[in-house]
Amino acid sequence: MANDNGDYESLRLQNQVCFPLYACTKEIIRQYTPYLKELNLTYTQYLVMMVLWEKETVSSRELAECLHLDYGTLSPVLKRLDQTGYLTRERSLEDERLLKLTLTDEGRKRKSSAVRIPPAMTECVGLSQEELKTLYFLTNKALRHMESHSGKDS
Amino acid sequence: MANDNGDYESLRLQNQVCFPLYACTKEIIRQYTPYLKELNLTYTQYLVMMVLWEKETVSSRELAECLHLDYGTLSPVLKRLDQTGYLTRERSLEDERLLKLTLTDEGRKRKSSAVRIPPAMTECVGLSQEELKTLYFLTNKALRHMESHSGKDS
DNA sequence: TCCTATTCAATTGTGTACAATTATTATATC
DNA sequence: GATATAATAATTGTACACAATTGAATAGGA
Question: Residue B110: how many CA atoms within 13 Å on its side-chain side?
Fold first, then answer.
């Protein structure tokens, strides 16, 4: 009934949606690199700094949640940012389990240098504002769907 | 003239397009993991296998190009797939620099188990066919733009 | 032919990324 | 108030990911 070609059609690299998503993400991050290098940051570290530039102080737990990263990834990243001198790590007084991260003056200074990164990256990706909005909408929709449908199906 | 809020608006995590792309990619790969574990594959190894399932034999150079991976990533991945017994690595006779990868019977067998992965993943992402097509189009467009505008501007 | 530049691949070093385990602190239950 | 449970981080182990370096094979030019 079904022919062999048709059965395996879905397994072709060209027919995967995730693959260009994966390749595109890596390529964008690669394009970020030279800009971030001037700030002594990696992309992951830049994500942490964006949160701190906005909130000044944040718990490790909040950070893990909003960046979708676990402690195995976050712990060494935070240690490096501490060593670089962009943030401080200290235990919360109310709850000794919580790690409180605070932006340092040195870290705050980098914010003004960072403002030119987003427009440069938008330029580099080569999509229109409309297309970027669509991309933003679709990836967020997929993310929300996967979050609500993973793990805790009781 | 310009207010401080407006200047830094573009630096907020919520206004980044790359971030949901990055988070979404990681989440999809995480969702792949249990399916791929049954085949003894990681996501990167699965990408290599998809190419081999289609072409039976391929050079390392071609693989690096179509998967957008460099040899630093690819070499150990190929070594592991060799150890698992899904492919063989041998030097090309015509050009000793080239590494020729060939699918083994054991590797070929896994293809029939893999066919149920793509529909399961489509389901899991939670986007319509139309939305997936749009996502595919936009990420490929961005990829092509970045490829043609990076490095060799003479 | 000899020399140089290029291509292909592997290796090294740094930095994620995540599952699984461990340790510490808080909370809930009795 | 002692004990079980849950929450928060850190650590360990495996596997990418990529820049930079190295080394071998090939191609191209004087």
Answer: 25
* CATH fold of A18-113: Arc Repressor Mutant, subunit A (1.10.10)
What sign results for the dihedral spanned by CA atoms A74, A75, A77, A81? positive
Tell me how far apart the alpha carbons of residues A18 and A147 are, in angstroms, rounded to a whole number: 17
- B57-111 tens-digit pLDDT: 999 999 999 999 999 999 999 999 999 999 999 999 999 999 999 999 999 999 9
Chain B: residue whose CA lies nearest to A132: B17
Q: What is the arithmetic mean of pLDDT over B27-38?
A: 96
A138 touches chain B (CB under 8 A): yes
**Which chain A residues in 66-125 lie under 8 Å from chain B, judged by CB atoms?**
66-68, 111, 114-115, 117-119, 121-122, 124-125
Structure-token match 């992309």, residue found? A43
pLDDT reported for residue B6:
55
B46 interfaces chain A, CB cutoff of 8 Å: no
Whether A76 sits with its Cβ under 7 A from any strand C atom: the answer reads: yes
Q: Six-digit token pair at B154?
A: 């003479």
Please, which pLDDT band fits residue B142 given cuts at 50, 70 and 90? very high
pLDDT tens-digit series, residues A28-42: 999 999 999 999 999
Encoded tokens for B6? 């407006």
* Spatial distance from the CA of B72 to the C1' of C10 (Å): 8
